[in-house]
Every structure is written in structure tokens, then in C-alpha cells.
Design brief:
- It is a single chain.
- Helix 3 packs across helix 5.
- The strands form three sheets. Strands 3, 4, 5, 6, 7, 14 and 15 form a seven-stranded mixed beta sheet that branches. Strands 10-9-8-11-12-13 form a six-stranded parallel beta sheet, sandwiched between helices. Strands 1-2 form a two-stranded antiparallel sheet.
- By secondary structure, the protein is α/β, with parallel strands linked by helices.
- The relative contact order is 0.17.
- It folds into two domains: about 190 residues, Quinone Oxidoreductase, Chain A, domain 1 (Alpha-Beta Complex), CATH 3.90.180; about 140 residues, NAD(P)-binding Rossmann-like Domain (Rossmann fold, 3-Layer(aba) Sandwich), CATH 3.40.50.
- Helices cover about 30% and strands about 25% of the residues.
- It is globular and about 60 Å long.
- One of its GO terms (cellular component) is cytoplasm.
- It comes from Chitinophaga jiangningensis.
- This is Zinc-type alcohol dehydrogenase-like protein.
- Belongs to the zinc-containing alcohol dehydrogenase family. Quinone oxidoreductase subfamily.
- Pfam families: ADH_N (PF08240), ADH_zinc_N_2 (PF13602).
């Protein structure tokens, strides 16, 4: 089968930042299903791994990455009970497992796979798993929010136009009834956040001032999808006493958690790969989340955040997708149709 990977960490514009090669089609065992990949999205985690995982070394075999995909089940392991050959599925995969979605066939544990939505394209479906799981787990599993007790409360989303921010706006608004404030600065990203359902969009460059100017001196919940170091001091100022803060970013400098004490604040990290990485007892929760979200995508409650589709499983398209993500200006999701 065809696969695209890299043997060393290079800048994306270098000739061998990605290489096309042939490898054996794997055979599923245990809880694994073998998926014929038909579409795969690219996320910031992809280019971060490409740039850093093989620095100053050359691997014998190319490293294949990719953590968002949709396709059709080709075969199943002997312990599989959730899926059968011919089922259409979508998933984000396992960060620690070799053999990502940038290949024609991929092994993935059934417990982190959902039935794909049927009323949208597989490209639209492939755009969703990683970001949906991240946003859903942050709001429901980490913050433990519910519509019954939290509807109407305020949520600030730092990085509203990105992949996670886009779907977090929708989940917060449609499923939890929160008042959603998102950050964006360019006219196109502001418009995108409003399209996703944000009640208010503020410029991240003047965050505290714009919040205050719009009557928000205290925010119930804040999630950071960009850079915790950059916004930490502002977050501490504007968060409501006994509020909750969450982040998915990778701060380069330590953050001072002692600043949480005065307001009795809670802080949460979210990594949607935790369940598959550690095979947690509730690992199958990701199957249920994705399958439920598929129904919401089919009935239009949630809409796909796909904005760019690249046609063809090629080195050139993978490089283009990485370039787009590395620019930091991407709105929504970029998907490659195989």
C-alpha cells in the first residue's frame, strides 16, 4: 500500500520533508479494525510532530503520522464487536501508535472510533474527530458542565476560528446554552466565529479592554486554544471567582498556579489522546462521543468545520496542508481527499 512519511525532521519546503513509499498492508487483531482511509485532516499536532520528533536523526523506516480520518472498514480483529466490514467510520486515532492516517490503510482500536455521519461527505466527517473530542471532553469531562445548571453562563474561547475553537463554539452554544465569547482579529476570522454561533467576538490583542467595553468584567469559564503563556495574566484578571480555566496549548514557560488560589479557581488540561494512550477504563467513551456527534452532524445541530479540501493523496497536498497550518492563519479545517 502507499504511505507518506518522513525519515527526519525538516522544514516543510525541503524536498524530503515528506516522501511517498510502499509498505505492507497491516492485518487487524484483537480490538483493531483495518480502515481504508478515504479522507484525512491535518492539525497543528501534525506539523509539530513532523518538525520535532526526528530532529538530528534519520529513521530506518519513514514515520507515518496523521490523526483525523474517515473511511470504510476493510477487516476486523477477532475481539471486535462494534463494527463489521463495510461500515463507514471516523476517528482521531492514538498519538503514541505507529502508522497514522497518512497511508491507504490504517489500524485503529474500535473503542476510539465512531460510526461516520451519513448525510455529509467523508471529507466533512474527517474534519471533525480530533477537534470534536477535544472540545467535548474539555467542556463535559473536565469542566463537567451541563445545560441544566450552566445555561446562560459565559464562556471565553481564546482562538475561536481554529479547528478546536470552531467546534467548541458550536458545542457550547448548541448543547450547553452558554453565552459564547470568542477571540479573533481578522475580518474573515471574526465572520467565521459568528457563523459558528459566537454571541460576541473580541480582538485578542486588546482582550481585557474589549471584554470590559462589552460589559464582561468577569467570565465564568475560559478555554485557551492558542498560547497559555501569552494570555495567562489576562485570564487571571477576567475569570470569575470560583471559575474554571482550561487549556490545550503547550506553554514554553511555567505558569504560576498560585495565582489561582485567591479566587479559588480550577485549572484543567485537556488532551484527547489520553484515553487511547493509557487505555483508560472509559476509553470507549470516545466511540460514544463520536457516534453521538455523527447524529448531530446529520441533523444539522452541529456543522462540519471543513473549509479547504485538497484532492488526492500526494506528497504535494500533504506539504500544502502543513504549510497552511504552520502559517497560523487557517480558519476551520483542512482535509485531504484520498
Amino acid at each position: 500500500m502507499k504511505a507518506i512519511g518522513f525519515k527526519t525532521s525538516l522544514l516543510i519546503n525541503e524536498a524530503e520533508s515528506f516522501i511517498l513509499f510502499e509498505t505492507a498492508k497491516p492485518t487487524p487483531t484483537g480490538h483493531d479494525i483495518l480502515v481504508k482511509v478515504q479522507a484525512a485532516a491535518v492539525n497543528p499536532v501534525d506539523y509539530k510532530v513532523r518538525k520535532n520528533s526526528l530532529k538530528d536523526q534519520i529513521a530506518e523506516e519513514p514515520k507515518v503520522i496523521g490523526w483525523d480520518a474517515a473511511g470504510i472498514v476493510e477487516a476486523v480483529g477477532e475481539e471486535v464487536t462494534l463494527f463489521k466490514k463495510g461500515d463507514y467510520v471516523y476517528y482521531a486515532g492514538d498519538f503514541t501508535r505507529a502508522g497514522g492516517a497518512n497511508q491507504e490503510y490504517q489500524l485503529v482500536d474500535e473503542r476510539i472510533v465512531g460510526f461516520a455521519p451519513v448525510k455529509i461527505s467523508l471529507e466533512q466527517a474527517a474534519a471533525m474527530p480530533l477537534t470534536v473530542l477535544t472540545a467535548y471532553e474539555m467542556l463535559f469531562d473536565r469542566f463537567r458542565l451541563s445545560k441544566e445548571k450552566d445555561a446562560g453562563k459565559s464562556l471565553l474561547i481564546i482562538g475561536g476560528a481554529g479547528g478546536v475553537g470552531s467546534v467548541a463554539i458550536q458545542i457550547a452554544k448548541k448543547l450547553l446554552g452558554l453565552t459564547v465569547i470568542a477571540t479573533a482579529s481578522r475580518p474573515d476570522s471574526v465572520a467565521w466565529c459568528k457563523q459558528q454561533g459566537a454571541d460576541l467576538v473580541v480582538n485578542h490583542r486588546n482582550l481585557e479592554q474589549e471584554l470590559n467595553a462589552n460589559g464582561y468584567t468577569e467570565i465564568d469559564f475560559i478555554v485557551d486554544f492558542v498560547d497559555l503563556n501569552q494570555y495567562w495574566e489576562t485570564i487571571i484578571k477576567v475569570i470569575k471567582p470560583q471559575g474554571q480555566i482550561g487549556s490545550i496549548s503547550d506553554p514554553k514557560e511555567p505558569v504560576d498556579l498560585r495565582q489561582l488560589k485567591r479566587k479559588s479557581l480550577s485549572f484543567h488540561w485537556e488532551l484527547m489522546f489520553t484515553r487511547p494512550m493509557y487505555h483508560t477504563p472509559d476509553m470507549i467513551a470516545q466511540h460514544h462521543i463520536l457516534t453521538n456527534i455523527a447524529k448531530l452532524l446529520d441533523d444539522g445541530t452541529i456543522t462540519s468545520t471543513l473549509t479547504t479540501t485538497l484532492q488526492g493523496f500526494t506528497v504535494e497536498n500533504l506539504k500544502t496542508a502543513h504549510e497552511m497550518l504552520e502559517s497560523g492563519k487557517t480558519i476551520g479545517k483542512v482535509v485531504i481527499k484520498y
